[in-house]
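JOB MANIFEST
job_type = single_chain_structure
chain_count = 1
residues = 353
[input]
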Amino acid sequence: MTGLPSLETVPGPIVLFGSGEAAPVARRAHAAALDRITPPVRACVLETPAGFEPNSPRVAGRLADFLRHRFQFEPHVVPARRRGTPESPDEPHVVSPLLTSNYIMLGPGSPTYTVRQLSESLAWRIVLARHRLGAALVLASAAAIATSAYALPVYEIYKVGQDLHWQPGLDLLGPFGRRVAVVPHWNNREGGAELDTSHSYMGGDRFERLLAMLPSEADVMGIDEHTAAFLDFPGGNVQVLGQGSVTWMSGGRSRRFEAGVSVPFDALGLMRTPASHDGIPDSVWEAAQQAAEASASAPLAQPTAAIEALVAERTAARARGDWTAADQLRDQIAAEGWEVRDTPEGPQLLPLE
């Protein structure tokens, strides 16, 4: 290390979706993650999980549109599609926006493709560094599988018919004390009465055999559809958000946590706090730290009197129940470069990027 001063930070939140990362029900999980980061929001959508698809820009673009329309900030799509191409996750000019991002989202696609493209890549190392420095990581179901210690090859088994097996994943939670296999679509019922498609399309019987293939120390986190596991590192707990539940399997014991429940990290064995730069090359850590320090030292914009007047007008519209006017004023405030958030203490203004 070159002796750069260390920022006093804790890792940012991690959101693991069982499905529905861009559905209306997902808004609360995104909002919870946004509440944990320091504004302004600098969001990136990493295109890698769908990078094998001809329309991968459109897949990532839909996520960017969701964030743009729901939360009024402008995400940057990072086209790190495939190694050995000009859009490689190892190309510095491709992945450089990640260095300053504090809200990083990986969307749908193939879990095993994601692992192949991101394992030991520059992009993934930057993502890890930014997370350790407080950035939020938001992972759709395929990305959640990819970031497991043991990644379930869903398509290879369910669609292609390969023998049951696990593949090494990116092991996002390993440095925090547990080697976890994340299994989204836990309660899937697309097969109806004829085919059990629960446990990420494996079905109960096949999943029991898959469980027997995992090392004894491995844990399993099963996440229902339209549900998110919100890992709140500042708060030291896992919260279940959405319509379903989260199942935690460890040491032969299975526990189910319903929506609204908060579970302390230590109850799940997530008790290790890694050194901030563990597993991250010095050059990547220093670059991420420099970007974080530059962001922290940048002066915050201050709203003008005209913006404050719009906020006051919107507060009055809400008080009299004129929601149409309130929404129009919110959009007008956003067009001027500000996000207004309603809190129990009153409206809060945050600068948009």
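[summary]
The longest strand covers residues 227-232.
The chain has two domains: 14-297, 305-351.
exit_status = 0
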